[in-house]
């Protein structure tokens, strides 16, 4: 764990030092040697740096760090609740809008199941043929029969 803490600090410092010190001769070779020194179990470089510099600094600032962590925990919970509510409101609004738009589209596509609608639906879907046989919708046949009965 000591190695990873020291390596994270090294990586952070490396971003700044690369900008200003890259012109030095053997700069990149020195960086590689430093990482090997940190990693080596014989030299225990990360352990040395951690015990001499990092641990005393963390120990002296322990109360401040605990306070910051507590504040961050409280703020993160409040932020989570705030954005959770906003997200639910957006999702609910989207669902209502989709339902409202979908209802209009759905009602346009639905048809009633009366005989007149079914017969007109069948004639619309039948392909036009060149034969001399013509079909009349059922509603037209009823009208013709009623007309014939009235004339008799």
Automatic annotation (TrEMBL):
Pfam families: TB2_DP1_HVA22. It comes from the Eukaryota. Residues 120-152 are annotated as: Disordered. GO terms for biological process: endoplasmic reticulum tubular network organization. It is found in: Membrane. Residues 129-141 have a biased composition (Polar residues). One of its GO terms (cellular component) is cytoplasmic microtubule. Transmembrane segments: none annotated. It is a multi-pass membrane protein. One of its GO terms (molecular function) is microtubule binding. PANTHER family: HVA22-LIKE PROTEINS, RECEPTOR EXPRESSION-ENHANCING PROTEIN 1. Belongs to the DP1 family. This is Receptor expression-enhancing protein. The gene is REEP1.
């Amino acid at each position: 764990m000591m190695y990873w803490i020291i390596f994270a600090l090294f990586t952070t410092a490396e971003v700044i030092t690369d900008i200003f010190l890259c012109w030095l001769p053997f700069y990149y070779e020195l960086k590689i040697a430093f990482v090997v020194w940190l990693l080596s179990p014989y030299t225990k470089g990360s352990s040395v740096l951690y015990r001499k510099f990092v641990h005393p600094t963390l120990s002296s600032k322990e109360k401040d760090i605990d306070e910051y962590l507590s504040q961050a925990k409280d703020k993160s919970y409040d932020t989570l609740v705030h954005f959770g509510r906003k997200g639910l409101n957006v999702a609910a609004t989207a669902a209502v809008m989709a339902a409202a738009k979908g209802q209009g589209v759905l009602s346009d596509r639905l048809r009633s199941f009366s005989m007149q609608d079914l017969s007109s639906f069948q004639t619309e879907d039948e392909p036009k043929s060149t034969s001399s046989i013509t079909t009349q919708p059922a509603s037209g046949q009823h009208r013709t029969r009623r007309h014939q009965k009235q004339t008799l």
